[in-house]
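Thanks for the sequence, V.! I ran Focal adhesion kinase 1 right away. Repeating your input here for the record:
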Amino acid sequence: MAAAYLDPNLNHTPSSSTKTHLSSGVERSPGTMERVLKVFHYFESNSEPTTWASIIRHGDATDVWGIIQKIVDCHKVKNVACFGLRLSHLQSEEVHWLHLDMGVSNVREKFEVGHAPEEWKYELRIRYLPKGFLNQFIEDKPTLNFLYQQVKNDYMLEIADQVDQEIALKLGCLEIRRSYCEMRGNALDKKSNYEVLEKDVGLRRFFPKSLLDSVKAKNLRKMIQQTFRQFANLNREESILKFFEILSPVYRFDKECFKCALGVSILICIYPDFHQVQTIQYSTNEDKDRKGMLQMKIAGAPEPLTVTAPSLTIAENMADLIDGYCRLVTGATQSFIIRPQKGKSKCLFKLANNEKQGIRSHTVSVSETDDYAEIIDEEDTYTMPSTRDYEIQRERIELGRCIGEGQFGDVHQGVYVTPENPAMAVAIKTCKNCTSDSIREKFLQEALTMRQFDHPHIVKLIGVITENPVWIIMELCTQGELRSFLQVRKYSLDLASLILYAYQLSTALAYLESKRFVHRDIAARNVLVSSTDCVKLGDFGLSRYMEDSTYYKASKGKLPIKWMAPESINFRRFTSASDVWMFGVCMWEILMHGIKPFQGVKNNDVIGRIENGERLPMPPNCPPTLYSLMTKCWAYDPSRRPRFTELKAQLNTILEEEKLQQEERIRMESRRQVTVSWDSGGSDEAPPKPSRPGYPSPRSSEGFYPSPQHMIQPNHYQVSGYPGSHGIPTLAGSIYQGQASLLDQTDSWNHRSQEISMWQPNVEDSGSLDMRGMGQVLPAHLMEERLIRQQQEMEEDQRWLEKEERFLKPDVRLSRGSIDREDGSLQGPASNQHIYQPVGKPDHAAPPKKPPRPGAPSHLGSLASLNSPVDSYNEGVKIQPQEISPPPTANLDRSNDKVYENVTGLVKAVIEMSSKIQPAPPEEYVPMVKEVGLALRTLLATVDETILVLPASTHREIEMAQKLLNSDLAELINKMKLAQQYVMTSLQQEYKKQMLTAAHALAVDAKNLLDVIDQARLKSLGQSRPH
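Predicted structure:
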């Protein structure tokens, strides 16, 4: 059977000069275009409804039934008997329904003599409706959608301006619901969504002009929003059925009326009840001045029923309608119409009936007298063999093993033999179902798209084999898909390589943008790795050329929802801006080493999260500038997203910065190795000792920066705390970041240096030590003295460290000490682990001064590895030092101590909230936080009264502690809002945890405020005593 392909917008070439079409590998000559028929229909495609059409090549023996069957077969229609072909003259109201057995050539000769061919419109319509047709069509979705589009089009053209305003609003909103069924019920409440509907799609598509002109824009928007909410829960089929339910009382689309006569002038309505009709005849006299006569032989009637019509055309149309219903009701394949037996007509009639009975041959032929219609897609004017530059002989291809699977075909590794290269490695994409011409056309569409590109980071097309089985030959990317590559090389790829991949993709997409193409499927799975420093964009099966329009609309097909922009999910609208969104998601995949976005979230729930402001979190080790760029790609408004040219420039800058930082890290590491090796070789200091078991070690896997397990995990919207190689967690107390990181890395490197020295004495590293060489240089008695001295120093260090710990133990974080010993300790938000925060206090006795030796465990270096309280809670406790009870509060008289009582009350409020927050619904968060806030306000008021009697020198420290508490409460409120916002999502537990973290920090800082006031009181007592 000849090719049939009806999706007019799969793609377009930039040049309109290529007008040939691929069919069974044979090119058409220009002379054959006169034997094609353009048939308009209502099968939904990607273009405007007024352009839905198919161009059908036909032969001399092709009848109307052949045209109809060819179109509906391509759409897998079950109720074929419901369809008819109507011929309309565009400049008059002349309408002809073409009977199924009429020859197409005869029709054209008959009607195109009096008028030019372009003045006639051939239209495929559903004309014959069975009883209970809606219930029957529910099982036949193509027919149901066709009828809906046909009826909606007739409604908009004929009566839309006359119907009641409320009905017009409902019908328009039902069409919006049907067209964008993925859109949420309240989506139009968002201004940007309504503007897309109003400006880009156009309200005229849904509502009659009379409604749009008579209602003010602001009021119309409110009316549409309110009406749309009524149908928020309807799916596509339910919207269609509701449309018919509302429309039926005002527009009878299921009947046709003809003005005719039965002796007297009456109006006849024809309904589908024709069991008793046996034959139909009408006058064949083609004299236009005479009226048409229609005769029907009715079972049981002595005489035929004769009907007089105003013209022969109306009589023919009535006869075709009655004949169609008779065949539909009785299930007959023969026509009920009896015609005069003229030679040519009789021959055509018999041939048509034979075809209907299944005698039609299925041999594919390219003869001009072929009886079978071939559908030519009107807008898909591409063809692969239009220039034979890409056609390859199958004998030159050696098919190898399968290396991948796709939607339309599998990918094999193979060899392409050419005189220049007898063993060129190639990738061969094979078509799974080449027997289906529509699948074959879609499959070759990717090759057509690829051949237009020439870019170092886009997979190149080598050639095609258009004969079955169809093959597409492309360049081979030996490393496979990027996603799998990232997962396998997770621990060997550095950050610069990941940013390089993103930059290379941005150059490819900027190239596509310049050629007015949208890719529509940008994801790590569709990127191929040519080498460890080169990736290429592939899989152009969904790519589209924009031509003169600014966007492409997809009406059907599977689409990657979790990668798509909100306007693509809601309105099936694809632009370069939607590609930018997908590229941002692809960058996130790369930095997450191949993890897919929105893990565990259903496709239907993705758009809701996006519209609520949720975005993918910042990946570990991601530079803040890069994540900021990614969030710009995820702007809800497409106009606010950057273009690919801008992305390319910014990614290049980020890549160069990362390379410079990487070089600097290597240089500093190398310099430290040399310095420490020199110092160790020429000094009398003991070799470095490992840190004691149980004490937190600041070991870092990156040398100069903290390891990922100690990094901060930021939330989705704030870039606070830069992870990875771009920052160090904030350290409480008086230790600055630079000092902490330097000491941390010195200590950390010394540990590694010791391990290398002990286990790899012959390492060929300029900074390593050869212990055996040192042993050979020193005399035996000197070595013995050195070992004794080392033993003494180790014992001294042990005693010093134990004393150091007592002074460096943090203030109470989990235990309330003497505040309320009967209530026990304040538990952490997620577990019973202790979390420490070092806080330097001026009144504490200073520890013994002892400069840290290289390799000796430094308390400052150890402190540098600890996160700030908020960091620790967000990330989870990673370090567990030896459990040591913190010191109690000052030993003061607590009778009538209002500050003490209010601190106790605040801590109790936090404990109560912590115990209730997990099972509590979101609406109960506010009362619990309010209790904590009231307790804090009472505490701060009491402190304001107490501070007046304390020394002025202590006021500054007390005020700072008060500000910290206010900041803690603000953080708690912020986390509460986030926990409420993301209820019933995967982030709910995370924000609950952060909420508990903020509450815990508030309680701990309240205890710190009490300690500060106690110290001020002790200082005041000391000043008041006589000397």
